[in-house]
Amino acid sequence: MTPTARILIIDDHPIFRTGIAQLINHQGEFFVCGEAETAPEALEAIVRLKPDLVILDITLKGINGIELMKTIRSSAPQLPVLVLSMHEESLYAERALRAGARGYVTKQEASNQVLDAIRRVLTGELYVSPVLGLHIATRMANGGDWAKSAVENLTDRELEIFELLGRGRGTRQIAVALKLSVKTVETHRAHIKAKLGAKTAPEMVRLAVQWVNELPNSNDKRLESNDL
């Protein structure tokens, strides 16, 4: 079979890009036409390579992946984007879909599920991991269309930082993990604290820990810096 579908991988971890590229190229029905690890590289590659599908991670150097996806949607509205992320909370999937993603799969999924997602998105379908799809449906049934809460009012970057706080990370560790300055992280922390109505920083962290503990598989998964 001659591969016809061209796939661009956007992820800031070379080892992961290599692994997913090998998985894709081995199938024979599609192939990786290029890779990028930053937003500028990604946007240039989209224009130059004209891929049929973009596989995008949420956590990138400098810009949040969801913000990049909004730019992609405005410049190439017909280009399908499949998010392949380490985040297992359904709120990330909801935000990605609202930003224009055609699919959302976690990096913890089995390889056959990732390939299934690629095939279905390429044929025009919308794909979300079964577990995340169930969580989204439950949230909508319990709270209406895209129900709001204090956490949902956080920006995409604030949500990432909030999750890292809940997993025991300090400001400097978060800065390193997300490739941000310490001052930027401190500013985001202040905004999170205000939006959650927390009176003190420890109270904000307590809320973050509580939120993380309620995530799917929270006892089994740990967010490490090299996983971002």
Characterization of this structure:
This protein is of the alpha/beta class. It is 51% helix and 12% strand. The chain has 10 helices and 6 strands. It has a 6-stranded parallel sheet with strand order 2-1-3-4-5-6, with helices on both faces. The protein starts with a strand and ends in a 15-residue tail after the last helix. The model is unreliable at 144-148 and 218-228 (pLDDT under 50).
Mean pLDDT: 83
The total strand number stands at: 6
- How many DSSP helices? 10
Order of adjacent strands in the largest pleated sheet: 2-1-3-4-5-6
What percent of residues are in strands?
Answer: 5-15%
Radius of gyration: 18 Å
Short synopsis of the structure:
This protein is 51% helix and 12% strand. The chain is α/β, with parallel strands linked by helices. It has a six-stranded parallel β-sheet, with helices on both faces.
Topology overview:
Blueprint (H helix, E strand, L loop, with lengths): L4 E6 L3 H12 L4 E7 L2 H11 L3 E4 L8 H11 L5 E5 L4 H10 L3 E4 L4 H12 L4 E2 L1 H14 L12 H11 L4 H8 L3 H15 L4 H13 L15
Parallel strand pairs: 1-2, 1-3, 3-4, 4-5, 5-6
Please give a handful of descriptors for the protein shown.
228 residues, alpha/beta, six-stranded parallel sheet, 51% helix, 12% strand, globular, disordered C terminus
